[in-house]
Amino acid sequence: MNRDMQQNWPSLLIDPLDDKPREECGVFGVYGLEDAAPLTVLGLHGLQHRGQEACGIAVYDGAHFHSERHMGLVSDNFAGPDVAKRLPGKAAIGHVRYSTQGETALRNVQPLYADLKSGGFAVAHNGNLTNARALRETLVTDGAIFQSTSDTEVVLQLVARSRRTHLVHRFIDALKKIEGAYALVALTNKKLIGARDPYGIRPLILGRLNGAPVLASETCALDMIGAKFERNIEPGEVVVITEGGIESHRPFAKVRPRPCLFEFVYFARPDSIVDGKSVYEVRKRMGQRLAIEHPADVDVIVPVPDSGVPAALGFAQGANIPFELGIIRNHYVGRTFIQPSQSVRDMGVRLKHAANRAVLKDKRVLLVDDSIVRGTTSLKIVRMVREAGAKEVHFRSASPPIRFPDFYGIDMPDAERLLAARHAHEEMVKMLEVDSLGFLSVDGLYWAMGEERRNDDLPAYADHYFTGDYPTRLCDYEQHNSDKAKQLSLLSDVA
Amino acid sequence: MNRDMQQNWPSLLIDPLDDKPREECGVFGVYGLEDAAPLTVLGLHGLQHRGQEACGIAVYDGAHFHSERHMGLVSDNFAGPDVAKRLPGKAAIGHVRYSTQGETALRNVQPLYADLKSGGFAVAHNGNLTNARALRETLVTDGAIFQSTSDTEVVLQLVARSRRTHLVHRFIDALKKIEGAYALVALTNKKLIGARDPYGIRPLILGRLNGAPVLASETCALDMIGAKFERNIEPGEVVVITEGGIESHRPFAKVRPRPCLFEFVYFARPDSIVDGKSVYEVRKRMGQRLAIEHPADVDVIVPVPDSGVPAALGFAQGANIPFELGIIRNHYVGRTFIQPSQSVRDMGVRLKHAANRAVLKDKRVLLVDDSIVRGTTSLKIVRMVREAGAKEVHFRSASPPIRFPDFYGIDMPDAERLLAARHAHEEMVKMLEVDSLGFLSVDGLYWAMGEERRNDDLPAYADHYFTGDYPTRLCDYEQHNSDKAKQLSLLSDVA
Amino acid sequence: MNRDMQQNWPSLLIDPLDDKPREECGVFGVYGLEDAAPLTVLGLHGLQHRGQEACGIAVYDGAHFHSERHMGLVSDNFAGPDVAKRLPGKAAIGHVRYSTQGETALRNVQPLYADLKSGGFAVAHNGNLTNARALRETLVTDGAIFQSTSDTEVVLQLVARSRRTHLVHRFIDALKKIEGAYALVALTNKKLIGARDPYGIRPLILGRLNGAPVLASETCALDMIGAKFERNIEPGEVVVITEGGIESHRPFAKVRPRPCLFEFVYFARPDSIVDGKSVYEVRKRMGQRLAIEHPADVDVIVPVPDSGVPAALGFAQGANIPFELGIIRNHYVGRTFIQPSQSVRDMGVRLKHAANRAVLKDKRVLLVDDSIVRGTTSLKIVRMVREAGAKEVHFRSASPPIRFPDFYGIDMPDAERLLAARHAHEEMVKMLEVDSLGFLSVDGLYWAMGEERRNDDLPAYADHYFTGDYPTRLCDYEQHNSDKAKQLSLLSDVA
Amino acid sequence: MNRDMQQNWPSLLIDPLDDKPREECGVFGVYGLEDAAPLTVLGLHGLQHRGQEACGIAVYDGAHFHSERHMGLVSDNFAGPDVAKRLPGKAAIGHVRYSTQGETALRNVQPLYADLKSGGFAVAHNGNLTNARALRETLVTDGAIFQSTSDTEVVLQLVARSRRTHLVHRFIDALKKIEGAYALVALTNKKLIGARDPYGIRPLILGRLNGAPVLASETCALDMIGAKFERNIEPGEVVVITEGGIESHRPFAKVRPRPCLFEFVYFARPDSIVDGKSVYEVRKRMGQRLAIEHPADVDVIVPVPDSGVPAALGFAQGANIPFELGIIRNHYVGRTFIQPSQSVRDMGVRLKHAANRAVLKDKRVLLVDDSIVRGTTSLKIVRMVREAGAKEVHFRSASPPIRFPDFYGIDMPDAERLLAARHAHEEMVKMLEVDSLGFLSVDGLYWAMGEERRNDDLPAYADHYFTGDYPTRLCDYEQHNSDKAKQLSLLSDVA
Fold first, then answer.
1. Within a domain: A272
2. pLDDT in tens, B125-175
3. Domain count of chain C?
4. Same domain for B91 and B198?
5. Contact residues on chain B for D352, CB-CB shorter than 8 A
6. Are D129 and D186 contained in the same domain?
7. Burial bucket for residue A322 (CB in 10 Å: 0-12, 13-18, 19+)
8. Strand partners, A120
9. Does residue A161 form part of some domain?
10. A142 contacts: CB under 8 Å, gap ≥ 6
11. What are the tens digits of pLDDT across the range D256-311?
């Protein structure tokens, strides 16, 4: 089982400069609309920030399923007027992905598809299952052959093997076996299905375009096609869309929802409304609160672009200090840009960020970023700002210290490479070479979300990366990483 | 179930000019040799005549399986010194293919691979199963998910689901369920396995290179790498090659073998020894016998190149008439060469064949080809020869009239498009516009094979395309083509 | 002569959504540094905003010239550690380009190269010649064969045909024949040469890295490699860099320089220092002045990203009104993203820009952009902002109305498609569907540049797109577009 | 001048196994026919044996020239029904090439094109100029810029610089300056032009299709499109084809023609009629004469396929010994097939040739090849035949010993690597490990051509590779290889 089949796919190198957690995926689906595939192209383009590694679309044209899956951007793979011909039909689902589980290979790109007894079945998944490995082993022992290393295929295999007759029952059967985080969209020859895990860790919304239903990870995908937001798919809800309308199922025991805070901190696009809140406004409030929690006597507030901009704006407005673009981002960096020579390696950070000397020279500068993960890029930016002539460099993170790994679809480094998991505050100040450093408090973050503070008994959000308080069992992790698990609990004690 | 998932793969167009039956595949395997993959590249290159559409190699390096599968020629995909690095290890299997079952798509290219309970398992197949469809339906109903439309995957799924413990037993379990023709090579993390169906319809041989075992479809693949021929894998035999040596299993009830005659007529390379006989010598004997059965008063014997050459040589030597290259073959025709314009369509045959006027002008010409399938190319060649100035054009087929379809891996047209299935001799003479026409008799073909004549009670070879006498049940065909089956029996009566 | 050779190159489609003038090119050169090519890769990456269509590098390794030219981004074509091997040597020049003259074809991509009597000669050009067509006709009549349709090749052919002995003299000979705008870098087996046209219309600077000279279009390219800015190449200056040092030539009659204002308005990167001025600061001043010239009673200042951001910030600070990111830019748009279907065409603008509803709803909004060219995108953005719920939408252009075409390397639409060339102010207000509209005055722009106002007798900058006052003769235009020229003078009268 | 610009084109590796001289090129042209480009595709396909490295077509559609040039085979690059759309028009020229002069790069692929004063001009060339280097230096000194390293561009530059008014006069002007071998086809907006050098070293013929003129290197290209052969273009003739008909010019002083014998020995296709003689018949006569000059007491005559087949057949018929296919050629070898591993390198020859053991075992074998160049492949084949069990191996070359290099477009190794230039007969017998060795005599070759013997005063053919008697001056060679020239004269003494 521990033997991996390694296909020789062209490798997409991960940008070594990008020290951000990565969102795993975005999903999209439409039902009952001409040009379902072109609309899905636009919808996925609107979700591109959630995954730039690969993209795929599956459609049903009334007689056949068609599918295309590609490495790379939506706009590079689904441009042009022939998409409607290549992918005909009035129902479609789509997926953008950054790989979390499963090696980077075309066969892992979603939507996945299978010919089931009941007919074709395509599925796309945002999230990560915490018992996928255990389920997979059971299935393989029982004779299942997996076509990918993706944990999404576990869902497919479970649906295929369910003893129930109707597809929806088979699908719910499968959902009851899986644990973890998921926003799923699935397509059959009759139905479009959407499902969100009981805690609602990953987002999924329902919109309408000319009356026809649309599913998407974020509202910005609806805006892209001119669709109206209708409502969130609720945590634990399964919606089944047919020609007859929308049917809602709630097959799980009710739990208190805990949507993921990192959607607000970093992943979601600022113009999205996630679980009823403007992401942009939340981020500005994070900055405003930060200005109260960790004020600074500086000349300019400079965001680390692009993700630090709203919080920096909130800080600047709150503190009444000028907001200036002291760091310019170069948007022409391909995913595969490796520094072309050993000797020029140290100028790496400049590939993406450049110091705007006119704004920084002889100034006391406060840098605002959305979060600090490993700290490697933060340090490079601090040095770059100093080289540009800043007199003082202060740093603020608009989210609390990240101390624990995520198992729900966010690709973060191991705990041992998370800066805040390993170092006390004073160490971090030294390591980042800053004049001062401040993190937003956990309660501050809940305040930015509109809560008074965190309710430790029944927290309203998934915040385990800050607190170590995971919403679900971590079956695979516990079984296979017992050593690491010990380490985790150690860290947990420290925290 | 009747919904097909259609991936948009680049289409490889089938040469519309080639009126030949197509061999399905060639297989190759080595065990216990450094450079297993490079050796497999050479071996597959030696088997390239058995399938030019796609090729693949799977290796095991002691820790991982690696695999590459490509559309196109071995020499275009596995050239270069990095093959050994891309595909490391001392055990390898390989496959060249012309598609028979399963659409032309990379996911159908072999070797197929699965992670089974027992570990990785790769398999490559030459032949065709006659009950694949029925088995597939049962498996899907039971929750199996197929990753390809290839009938070879049925074997894989059966192995995955066997209740036996040991891999070899599971594999034999699977073989006992399948019917039809197969020469299989399979690779696990410990074993190289070869298997040949009970009738031995498709060939498979064992050779040695520096003591290490080699499996291949034909001896010419052994010659390519300098390996020595050891013996045929016998019909119904399963050989299991491990570090400990070679173990032979015979899990099937014994039947009289019936290897496929078309290997001798057309498929095998003339320098191969198939089931103990030189293909070149058999073909020359076919020509010699033809000269006796259907003599002709002509000036020159001209082969239809390349496959008609040995029979023409045999005819010429037997009849003591000069052998001349009256038709020149252009070997630079890509697989995808379509005539570039409607208005020049009729000059199609010349893309591959050109008349050598100096040899044909004012001559009585006898053309010798290995067989006549649809007759379309034969007619074009006859016309081309006449246009080049031949006074008379006679035609001889070195094999009997083809009247029945094949279900064991030869891609022949439907019965209604087989010239000899639909037309009486005199009609064929007119349709081909020849001055005379002769086919080798079935007994003549057995004579060329070294038999006295065909033993109708227990024929020594599979010869159903000539006789309608199929060695096995035709489960899928009977179930799904009951109409066609009736038509078949009709034709059978005529014959 | 009027017959064009059309090579079938893959077409790179121009983004139909982008209603911005396009910069033609950026140039870069280094001399006497190990890893000259990797440094040039980084330098060109820093100039990527000046041209995303194609890029090229030429090097000299002491014995041979090597060159690579590609369609697409620097980071997509010159990634990876093998660049230093592919392009060895200690002297290099490079080019990024957006096509102005010459169809989009690889043979037009620069640097261009020729084997001259004196040895190899490579040249890269930013700008546009106004007498290229006339010179080309003369040269062809005299037997010259052009390998491209680029006007840069005229320079090459003139150098080749000069009767002078020394290369530098031959080069200056050529410069004396050409008119228009140019920043040139050239490489021989001994020298790196830089040249700027007499008016200095296009920028060119000199920097140092570890003492070695570097030429670049903008300072941000120096920052990228950690080089120090030394000085501008002066208008009309030719610098010849050899192992012996830097030699400066001034072969032209002295004229009052007129660098192009659009570098400040739009082209140059905000972190660049152009002709001694911070582009970012100039743009903020444009916004500050605009707040004075065209104040507005609004709730939020919203930039049209990315180019409108500094001016919007300047306006907001000047007017003391909140600056908010009311429009979010999607940076994942490939150059070739065409709307995938006719029926979804009208949602085009959203591919690149999305409304941030939370900021806009029920607000009086002032949009600030750097300039208005055709107005098509402006209109779409205004509508999008209204659809997002804005109560009022006001628009400000941080530069004066654009009324005249450019002939110096900026790819603007013809006069008839320039909004301000054809419509009075009130018409524009209606056409753009805004509540108010304001353009910065020409004097206001000069103020932002640090001048009191425009000196109409001897203007300090090229500002013809606003004023119709061209710094040079327009030879080709006058000869070949006499009709259009009349139209131009008409418009000039109106202005 | 000695600095080469090296573009990084994908390298097409030359098959290291192929020990044959290589033909430089084939040319083709049609005028006044719909579907000119598709017809040219077919014509070039018929000439593919003359050059497999690259191919190109240029057309004129009444308003514009269009052109495509590709690396690789005609059938891989010009397949499909869109060729007529990509290359519209009723006049076309085409070229297949194996590189002789000029590195392997797309910019050297023909037809070459230039915009001249008189309009567009495309030209394709088979042959090699012996004073190209000298002319090129003069032209560059005079300011010409070359776009390729091909000697064909010298013709283009000379036409561009001619002081004559009419294009035909300019073209003839250019021809008068060049020396060496050429068959040229050229296309203007009014004319199709064909030209053959004064000695007629390279072939060029005129045919007709539906009355419209067709130019081609060989008659097999006419056969491909169903055109009728009309006549040879005569040595020293320039034909100018317009709507008004065909005009013939003879601008050169008359010399005794000397067409190249190697066209008959190896290059031309056997079904072609070259200078009035059937290539197939000539080759058979070479074999017949060889059987007289160098008889052998053997059991079988085995050709080295494919080029040795007609001579072997002639030998077998002459000597009345059985002709057998003892060596099978594998036609699936890509141009780039490198042995995939060092350790399997020695099995190289088998990639292309396989021994047919059944024919060779225990036999006395006579191998017949068309020629012996370096002898490296001959040795490998001899060894392979012995390993297959041959008792004796005799070798016959159907042409005389090759002792001198060619300068007219045949790519042969340097003299020092020509087996017969360096070794006495007995040495060669030992080196090739044969039981006997025989070469056809020069007089024997003339006899096969229908002459009584070679007329040493006025030889009828170019035969310098055998005799050292070159038809023209060797200007470039004499100037630049004076050392080698001395060596050449030495060898000449020996011969």
1. no
2. 999 999 999 999 999 999 999 988 888 999 999 999 999 999 999 999 999
3. 2
4. yes
5. none
6. yes
7. middle
8. A115
9. yes
10. A161, B161
11. 999 999 999 999 999 999 999 999 999 999 999 999 999 999 999 999 999 999 99
Domain boundary among C257, C291, C317: C257
Cβ of D115 within 8 Å of Cβ of C156? The answer is no
Torsions phi, psi for A319 (to 5 deg):
-95, -10
Q: Do residues B222 and B133 share a domain?
A: yes
CATH code of the domain covering residue B328:
3.40.50.2020
Question: Per mean pLDDT, which range of A3-12, A352-361, D366-375 is the poorest?
Answer: A3-12
Helix, strand, coil % (nearest 5) of chain D? 35, 25, 40
Work out the angle between the directed axes of helices B152-161 and B167-177 (0-180°, nearest 10): 130
Supply the CATH number for residue A93's domain: 3.60.20.10
Q: Work out the mean pLDDT of chain B and round it to a whole number.
A: 88
Q: Nearest CA to B402 among B392, B417, B390?
A: B417
Q: Which sign does the torsion angle of CA C69, C72, C74, C75 carry?
A: negative
**Has the ipTM of the complex gone over 0.85?**
yes
Q: HEC states along D327-354?
A: EEECCCCCCCCCCCCHHHHHHHHHHCEE
pLDDT for A16 equals 37
> Beta-carbon neighbour count of residue C437 at 10 Å?
20
Task: Look up tokens 């028979």; give the residue.
Answer: B100
For residues A211 and A359, membership in a common domain is answered with no
The DSSP result for C409-420, as a single string, is SEE---GGG-HH
B404 falls in which pLDDT band (50, 70, 90)?
very high
How far is Cα C373 from Cα D195, in angstroms, rounded to an integer? 56
Say if C60 falls within a structural domain.
Answer: yes
Point out the residues of C that are catalytic. Answer: 25
* C270: nearest CB among A78, A339, A356: A356
Same domain, A242 and A312: no
Interface test with A, best of C23, C48, C75 (most A CBs within 10 A): C75
Q: What is the pLDDT of residue C4?
A: 35
Predicted confidence (pLDDT) at residue C9 exceeds the cutoff of 50: no
pLDDT recorded at residue D367:
98
Cβ contacts of D269 on chain B, cutoff 8 Å: 328, 354
Look at A280 and C356 and tell me if their CB atoms are within 8 Å. yes
Identify the band that residue C331 occupies on the pLDDT scale cut at 50, 70 and 90.
confident
Residue type, D41: V
Chains in contact with C, where contact means 3 or more Cβ–Cβ distances below 8 Å, are A, D
Same domain, yes or no: D322 and D364: yes
Domain that holds residue D199: 25-257
Helices D279-293, D309-319: axis angle to 10 degrees equals 50
Tell me the pLDDT of chain A averaged across its residues. Answer: 89
Report how far residue C32's alpha carbon sits from residue B10's, in angstroms, rounded to the nearest whole number.
Answer: 48
B192 and B324 share a domain? Answer: no
Residue contact A79–C334, C-beta within 8 A: yes
Co-location of B360 and B413 in the same domain: yes
Sort out which chain B residues have CB atoms less than 8 A from D46's CB and list them. Answer: 330, 350, 354
